[in-house]
Design a protein that fits this description.
Blueprint: H1 10-19, E1 41-42, H2 55-69, H3 73-76, H4 86-96, E2 103-105, H5 109-120, E3 129-133, H6 138-150, H7 155-158, E4 159-162, H8 173-183, E5 187-193, H9 205-214, E6 218-222, H10 234-237, E7 241-244, E8 259-262, H11 309-325, H12 327-346, E9 354-356, E10 369-373, H13 377-386, E11 389-390, E12 392-394, E13 398-401, H14 410-421
Parallel strand pairs: 1-11, 3-4, 3-5, 5-6, 6-7
Antiparallel strand pairs: 2-8, 7-8, 9-10, 10-13, 12-13
Length: 422
C-alpha cells in the first residue's frame, strides 16, 4: 500500500471520517459510556468486540420461541434448533476462506484445539515434535504441552518453541522456514497462531503450510486474533486444520461459541482418530440411537454436542454485518485506520516513552498496534482508563491498541493520541 499523506489535526481526522464509506456501521454497535455519558474510546476489540445493536433481537427470538415451544423448538422455532449451526456455516466459511463442508461453528477455542490435536497430532518414535511460537497465548502452551505429555513425551523435548532473534520482538518468516527445513523430519505437527496476541504479528501462513507439507508435517493454526480481522484463505493455502473464537473481532459476546476448520482432503477419512460425540454422527441416523459412530463427512464430524442456541444467535447477528460489509472493505479501512494511528504515534515518540513492536509492514499485521512501554507502563495504562480510553494491558509492559474498522473512527484514533500525550 503506497504511503498516505496524513495530517495530525482533528480537522483532518474528521475529513477522513466523512470520506469513510463504512462510517455508518459505528452507529449499529453499543458503545460503552463513561459516568458523564460520553462514550469511551474503545480499542479492545482484539479482546472482546462490542455488541451489535441487532444482537438483542436475534437472542430474544430464540428466548421467545423457547417460551412458546419448549422442546418442540428444535423443529418448530422460527429458526429450528436442530440444524441451527448450519445457519452460520456459509458466513463463517467466507470469513476463513473455507469450501463447503470444511468449517463448522462449535465448542470453545481450546476445546476445539484439543479435539483437532487428537486427530492431527499422531506422533511416532521418530516424528513426534510440535512446532509453535514461544510467545503464543498461554492457553496454546498449555494445550500443546499437555498433548505431548498425553502421548508420553517430555514437552521440553517434544515442543519446539520458536523465539524471535535477540533484540527483536517478532519471529522472522525466514527463521520459521529454516526451522522447518532443519527439524521437519522430526516434527509431526506445526501449530502456530495466525496472529500473535502480544505483538500483533500476522504470520505468513501460506508459506508455513508449504514448508511444513514439503517435510511431511501436518500444519494447523489458532486464528483467535485473525478471524474477522484479516482476510483468510484456509482452503487455498492448504491448511490442514484451524480453530478460532468469535468473541474478539467477530463480536459474538463473552465466551461465545467458537469454530474449527478441517481441509476437505480429510472429509472422507473415517479412520482418522477423533473424540466422537453424537452431533458428529450421521444426521439421517442420529435419532436411531445407534452405538456405532458414523461420522458426517467433513468438519461437522468433529462436533460433540447439540448447538448452544443463544450463543449462536448472538454470532448470527454479527455475521450478518460481516456478510453485508465484506472482508475486503473491512481490510481496506483497517489498513488505513491502523496506518493513521501509526503515523500519529510516530509524531509523539519524544513525548511518550513507548515503542511500537507490531510490524510496520501492513501485510504483516491486522487491526492492532502493540505499544511497548519503556517507563511506568501500568501508570500510563491507568491514566488512559481514567481519561476515558479502554485499551488492553498485557504483562509485562505492553498496551495493545486495536482500532476496529466496524466501529472505530479516525477521530477516535486522533483523540487517543492527544490523551496519550496530555
Amino acid at each position: 500500500m503506497p504511503p498516505i499523506p496524513f495530517t495530525n489535526t482533528l480537522q483532518f481526522a474528521r475529513q477522513l471520517d466523512a470520506q469513510d464509506q463504512l462510517r455508518s456501521y459505528r452507529e449499529r454497535f453499543h458503545l460503552p459510556a463513561q459516568k458523564n455519558g460520553e462514550p469511551f474510546l474503545y480499542f479492545t476489540g482484539n479482546s472482546l468486540g462490542l455488541q451489535p445493536q441487532s444482537t438483542r433481537d436475534y437472542v430474544m427470538t430464540e428466548l421467545d420461541d423457547w417460551a412458546k415451544f419448549g422442546v418442540e423448538g428444535h423443529f418448530h422455532a422460527r429458526n429450528p434448533w436442530m440444524p441451527y449451526h448450519e445457519f452460520l456455516t456459509e458466513s463463517v466459511s467466507r470469513l476463513v476462506g473455507a469450501q463447503a463442508g470444511e468449517a463448522v461453528v462449535m465448542g470453545s477455542l481450546t476445546n476445539n484445539l484439543h479435539l483437532l490435536m487428537v486427530s492431527f497430532y499422531r506422533p511416532t518414535a521418530t516424528r513426534y515434535k510440535i512446532l509453535m511460537e514461544a510467545d503464543a497465548f498461554p492457553s496454546d502452551h498449555y494445550a500443546m504441552d499437555s498433548q505431548a505429555k498425553f502421548h508420553g513425551f517430555d514437552p521440553k523435548d517434544a515442543v519446539i518453541k520458536m523465539k524471535p532473534r535477540e533484540g527483536e520482538y517478532t519471529v522472522r518468516t525466514e527463521d520459521i522456514l529454516d526451522m522447518i527445513a532443519r527439524e521437519g523430519d522430526s516434527i509431526a505437527t506445526i501449530m502456530f497462531g495466525g496472529m500473535n496476541y502480544y505483538t500483533g504479528q500476522l504470520f505468513e501462513m501460506e508459506k508455513i503450510v508449504q514448508a511444513g507439507h514439503a517435510k511431511g508435517c501436518i500444519v494447523g493454526f489458532d486464528l483467535a486474533h485473525a478471524v474477522g480481522n484479516v482476510p483468510l484463505k484456509l482452503h487455498d493455502w492448504g491448511v490442514d486444520f484451524a480453530a478460532w473464537c468469535h468473541y474478539k473481532y467477530c463480536n459474538a459476546g463473552p465466551g461465545s461459541v467458537a469454530g474449527l476448520f478441517v481441509h476437505e482432503r480429510f472429509a472422507q477419512d473415517t479412520d482418522r482418530p477423533r473424540f466422537a460425540g453424537w452431533w458428529g454422527h450421521d444426521k439421517e441416523r442420529r435419532f436411531l440411537m445407534e452405538s456405532e459412530f458414523r461420522p458426517i463427512a467433513g468438519a461437522e464430524s468433529w462436533q460433540l454436542s447439540n448447538a448452544p442456541i443463544l450463543s449462536m444467535a448472538s454470532l448470527r447477528a454479527s455475521l450478518a454485518i460481516f456478510d453485508e460489509v465484506g472482508m475486503e472493505a473491512l481490510r481496506a479501512k483497517s489498513l488505513k485506520l491502523t496506518a493513521y494511528l501509526e503515523y500519529l504515534l510516530a509524531d509523539v515518540y519524544e513525548q511518550v516513552p513507548i515503542q511500537v513492536i507490531t510490524p510496520s509492514e501492513p501485510a504483516q499485521r491486522g487491526a492492532q498496534l502493540s505499544l511497548l512501554t519503556l517507563k511506568d507502563g501500568k501508570a500510563l495504562f491507568n491514566k488512559l482508563m481514567e481519561q476515558g480510553v479502554i485499551t488492553d494491558w498485557r504483562e509485562p509492559n505492553v498496551i495493545r491498541m486495536a482500532p476496529v474498522p466496524l466501529y472505530n473512527s479516525y477521530e477516535d484514533v486522533w483523540r487517543f493520541v492527544q490523551i496519550l500525550i496530555s
